[in-house]
Specification:
- By secondary structure, this protein is α/β, with parallel strands linked by helices.
- It folds into three domains: 4-180, Rossmann fold; 192-292; 296-469, no CATH class.
- The chain is built from 18 helices and six strands.
- Helix 12 (300-317) packs antiparallel against helix 13 (322-343), helix 13 (322-343) packs parallel to helix 18 (431-449) and helix 14 crosses helix 15 (382-391).
- It is elongated, with a radius of gyration of 35 Å.
- Mean pLDDT is 82; it is low at 414-422.
């Protein structure tokens, strides 16, 4: 087997002979007959196979042939113009390579958008496969278009650089392969800032996508897989999917434990590692208390765990989505009322009335006359729960609500806005915040009567990590 050093020596000898050949046609024959095979052998010596190769085709077949040898592929896309179709055919004749498929894509010489579409086609047709874009030759629109879109789609990019040979009229040689860094290596700080804003703003799906993109581009500084796991974990937590939350938070901690702080100087998660471990344990505790999917049950421990999670979520949502925060606060109050009914021996989902006649009398005596004809509910809503508790002589809710009649009016007002879960649509600046405060105050009083407590202030287990500086 010929060693690379020997091939280089043979190439240099041919270059010397080319320098002495002054006649153009003789120069071209010597180049193709002796120089090109050596250049192709050297290129093959450092070849890296790929799934898909996309080549822009210029006016010289030799650079195209060298590009084909450098990245042997199963699938080949040739991007050419009306003037370079024959060049691509000549390049294929020069190499001894077989392809599963060759796609010929003709584009206008000055139309970058046409090149964009070809790269999009190659990207979409081969998901999860290695795609290499080689833009050694072609028009400026073709090469610039290929490089721009390859960076956007996170595809591998390379080109073959060469120098004019000594004394040569047209030939170039001493080829070297250059890889093109992903644009995010330079502009990653912009994308990172956007990802961190999305993360801190609760848009965890957007943050995860950007963290994955930065990780695929190998942008230095942060542990992108750990950040992506954290985003998935928090997203699951917000959806009350505590199993997925526990799994992803655990994975984030494992990734951080296996990483080097010295190699990732900008990764703030190292300083939050213990907090993430606490949150992973908290998610596991919530999972054990509520089951794989949170549900309303008769069990006090489960209800209390779910209430604490919802209160924390309402507080996290308040700065960016006060309407969602109000809805969550409403749900907390609803669960609190259900818990109070449970203390009386009634399941809000399927209540039983062992002393129905006596209860009905107490019920009718305890509410306004217009409600006396109402039957006892088969399922108890928040509003009905308050009436039933009143009928049973439970004064906790009345006592908690007495200080603010507006809140009672909001609870009793019904409309068709499904999102607000039955409470009156709130309008006006600060009204959602006021409603949330009222609901949580009543829920807190109800919880206190049962010997429970809503989470107050900051709680490391429930307050999500922030990433932006």
């Amino acid at each position: 087997m010929v060693q690379r050093a020997e091939l280089v020596a043979q190439r240099e000898a041919v270059i010397a002979r080319l320098a002495e050949t002054g006649e153009r046609d003789a120069h071209a024959r010597l180049y193709e007959a002796e120089y090109l095979p050596l250049a192709m052998a050297l290129m093959a010596d450092e070849a890296e196979a790929t799934d898909v190769l996309l080549l822009t085709v210029g006016t010289q077949p030799y650079s195209v042939a060298l590009s084909l040898v450098r990245s042997p592929a199963r699938v080949l896309y040739l991007v050419f113009t009306d003037q370079t179709h024959a060049v691509a055919q000549k390049a294929l004749e020069l190499v001894d390579l077989a392809f599963e498929a060759v796609f010929w894509r003709r584009v206008p010489a000055a139309d970058s958008a046409a090149v964009y579409r070809v790269l999009r086609e190659a990207h979409d047709a081969h998901p999860g496969q290695r795609v290499v874009v080689n833009f050694t030759s072609g028009t400026k629109a073709m090469t610039a278009g290929a490089s721009t879109v390859a960076g956007y789609l996170n595809l591998e990019q390379l080109y073959i650089a060469s120098v004019r040979l000594p004394g040569a009229l047209t030939a170039f040689g001493r080829e070297e392969v250059h890889r093109v860094d992903h644009p995010l290596v330079v502009f990653g700080d912009i994308e990172r800032a956007e990802a961190e804003r999305a993360f801190d703003g609760g848009r965890f799906g957007v943050a995860e996508r950007l963290f994955n993109k930065l990780g695929q581009a190998m942008v230095p500084g942060c542990h992108w897989p750990a950040r992506a796991s954290l985003a998935r974990g928090y997203s699951a937590w917000e959806a009350l999917d505590f199993k997925a939350a526990a799994d992803e938070l655990t994975q984030a901690v494992v990734l951080l434990d296996g990483a080097s702080r010295r190699a990732l100087p900008e990764e703030r998660l190292f300083f939050e590692r213990d907090r993430l471990a606490e949150q992973s344990a908290a998610a596991q505790t919530l999972l054990e208390a509520t089951g794989a999917k949170a549900r309303t049950v008769f069990d006090a421990a489960q209800t209390n765990a779910l209430v604490r999670a919802l209160v924390a979520r309402a507080r996290r949502a308040a700065p960016r989505a006060p309407d969602l925060s109000a809805l969550l606060a409403y749900r907390v109050l609803e669960l609190s009322i259900q818990r109070r009914l449970a203390v009386q021996g009634l399941d809000a989902g399927a209540p039983t009335y062992p002393e129905a006649d006596a209860l009905l009398s107490r019920y009718n005596a305890g509410v306004e006359a217009r409600y006396q004809a109402k039957e006892l509910p088969s399922k108890i809503s928040l509003l009905q729960g308050r009436w039933v508790l009143r009928a049973l002589g439970d004064g906790v809710v009345d006592e908690a609500e007495r200080s603010d009649r507006k809140f009672v009016h909001l609870l009793m007002s019904r409309n068709q806005n499904i999102y607000t879960h039955g409470f009156k649509t709130i309008r006006g600046e600060g009204e959602f915040e006021k409603f949330s405060a009222m609901a949580l105050a009543v829920a807190g009083a109800v919880a206190a009567a049962d010997g429970l407590a809503l989470p107050a202030g900051e709680d490391r287990q429930y307050d999500f990590v922030r990433l932006a500086s």
